Amino acid sequence: MAEILRIREIRAEHFNKRITVEGKVSKIEEIKLEITIATFECKSCGAKYRVSTPKPPSECVRCKGKSFELLPNECEYRDLQQIKIRDTHRAKMPQGFFKTITVNLRGDLIGKVQKGDDVIISGTLKPLISKTGLVKELLLEAETLEIKKRRRK
Q: What pTM was computed for the model?
């Protein structure tokens, strides 16, 4: 079994790796749609491009145009729900340590948790970088989720 980390124990060595973290659900967002395959149309010649990123191609192969329009009705989507978890350890947090992580839930993980649940989540940890080059937030792309303790109603 993988080592279970507390949020305060996460360091740069964990970025872009699969980790298992323990925390308490502090916020649950509404379910949103995420583009998985985007369709863009070249504004110059009408050529269409299907790409696996929400960013348009850099250049049209047909006419060398650089201006594209997203065609939402021709894109493919999947459900996405974001939650935040916070460290469950009650000792005072040292200054500068992360206290929360944003977690992306997809597929059958959506709608499983309630605010206040204690959870163990495994997934790939990604740093979200600010314009100044500092890590502003941690994002966990969840693969598995276990409810350790359900919140009391």
A: 0.83
